[in-house]
Amino acid sequence: MASRANGVIRGYPHLGTVRAAITALYRRLSPDGVLSYTSSVPPADAAFGDGDDLHLGAQRVARVLVEHLRLPQARMIVSFREMEHAASVELTAGPEYFIELNNRFRGHRRDIGAALAHEITHVLLHRLDLSFPGTRDNEILTDTATTYLGAGWLLLDAFRESRLTSQKLGYLTPEEFGYVLAKRALVFGEDPSVWFTSPQAYTAYTKGRALALRDVRQPPLAAAGWTARNRYARDRRHAAERGGRVPEPGRARPGSGGTAGAGDGGDSGYAFETGADGLRVSFPCPTCQQRIRVPVRGRVRARCGLCRSVLECDT
Fold it and tell me: What is the pTM of this model?
């Protein structure tokens, strides 16, 4: 469920698509490819002072983002004009790509890096031939990729609210940006909270981080809390009595302890089924969201076949 305040949608209405986007990144880039984005874009490299030349400064930040996103021989030509959206990019075979930014960025130069990050990630995904069907889901994929690969903290930092106005860039909600940013931070050992200039961005990050931490504390992971473990034991007993069953993928089960939280719009839950070797449990990898299947036999160590994470489980 999402809420709307000052015209900005809040909460986690796109969480299922966000998680699918993280899985798609690992599948397309490989774990080593994802892990090559070790550092996020430094704040100093994306800084844009009011005294900087508008076009030279935009070109400088664009070059920083091209280099960060590993786009060889990709030259971005940035211009400004009146337009409905914040920005757009012309996706061609390259090597030159034309990015247009809304004229309002002439007076909001500190957010130029955020707008460029989203558009240049469009170029990266175009070259990778990675897309989702439909404009909405494809834009969510782009925001998720921008953030998970180290440039999207700029988009979250562009979120600002006051008593009279609000501003947000991108298609994810502030909390969803915070969630993806926290998922990245858990993998790379970063603390992006020190980069925020917007207090609203910091708050959204802390909320998203709480949900990301909940992902690593869901049964059957051994780090699950006492209450979740009790629910899991009850569901496991019921599944054993019924001989197991195969739920619909992506659907929350009544009574399951695996939902990510009331109102977050997604399901990160476990599900039981019967296999040739008896009862099994499947659950999403807390790193890449790929579902993992293991036999129900107490303490086991599972290795994700996609991102290669090793997970301690108590099934």
Answer: 0.90
Rounded CA-CA distance 115/100 in Å is 10
The reply to whether 132 and 271 lie within a common domain is no
Strand pairing report for 96-102 and 75-81? parallel
91 phi, psi to nearest 5 deg: -90, 110
Burial 223-252 (b: 16+ CB within 10 A, else e): ebeeebbebbeebbeebeeeebeebeeeeb
Distance separating alpha carbons of residues 75 and 81, to the nearest angstrom: 20
Residue 154 to residues 46, 113, 139, 201: CA-CA distances in angstroms? 8, 7, 16, 10
Same domain assignment for residues 208 and 259: no
Beta strands per DSSP E along the chain? 2-5, 8-11, 75-81, 87-89, 96-102, 160-161, 166-167, 271-275, 278-284, 291-295, 299-303, 310-314
Q: Band of the pLDDT at 143, cuts 50, 70, 90?
A: very high
For the chain, the domain total comes to: 2
**pLDDT tens-digit series, residues 145-204:** 999 999 999 999 999 988 777 889 999 999 999 999 999 999 999 999 999 999 999 999
Write down how long the chain is: 315
- Distance of alpha carbon 150 from alpha carbon 36, whole angstroms: 11
Residue 221 inside a domain? The answer is no
Range of the domain at 87: 2-215
What are the tokens at 109? Answer: 């130069």
For residues 31 and 68, membership in a common domain is answered with yes
